[in-house]
Predict the structure.
Amino acid sequence: MIIFDGKALALNIKSQVAESVKKLNKKLTLAVILIGNNPASEVYVRNKEKSCKDVGIDFELIRFSENCKQNDVIKKIKELNKKIEISGILVQLPIPNHLNEREILDTISAKKDVDCLTQENFGRLALGISDFAPCTASAVIEILKQSNIAIQGKKVVVVGRSALVGLPTQMLLTRNNATVTLCHSKTEKLKKITKKADILVVAIGKAKYITKKYVKKHSVVIDVGINRVDGKLCGDVDFENVKKKTHLITPVPGGVGQMTVAMLLKNILLLNS
Ligand code: GUN
């Protein structure tokens, strides 16, 4: 059984990005819009800031209050779109319910959309015009490839259908010739489906939900969940219960999360080279 080391691989990718940033000879700046005070988002944004700085990318944080107005956010994004010194724009999700998320994301210029969440960039991915993808989906593929896990022809089950994770992960896996089943909260007999997976990708946001009863022997389990239970981070997979049954499993923390930030840095670079 292999426990995937996200930290080591992320460090490797970060040093490659740092090298490329140096060669680029152009100052890069990521602008992050953070709305409200979601504690998890605060942590994610701080991680993004540190990682940017580590590889020589400048970071600008723009904060809005929980009860901010749609138009103020839109106006700010339009300003950032125009600024040549801003290389990438990211709106940290989730945002408060009173805001129109789709309109906000689609205001970001596709050329600065480092999260690949605009209609234009997401549509290109869906149609197979581009490989540029949301960071978590790219992270899942990178983990499989770097761990020498064959994707072609394999039965892959993705649990979770969000635009941020499940949907783009399904698209990238399909492009890599996997046979993908996408499950979600309304799926019936989930266990029966996940048990057939050679590769199981879980992004449901329920702490330790996936136990060994859901997992095929010697399969690969990728845990995208980040939950906090009694002050401790854990994934959507019950790691201790499942690990012995797998060929490879990603831990939380130290798995997908580390890789997602590394792929964000890669995305910034991709849009600016
Ligand atoms: N919230 C959780 N993950 C992400 C991410 O990758 N991008 C954004 N914008 N928000 C997130």
Notes: The two ends are 39 Å apart (CA to CA). The mean pLDDT is 97. Residues 26-112 form a domain with the Rossmann fold fold (CATH 3.40.50.10860). The longest strand covers residues 29-35.
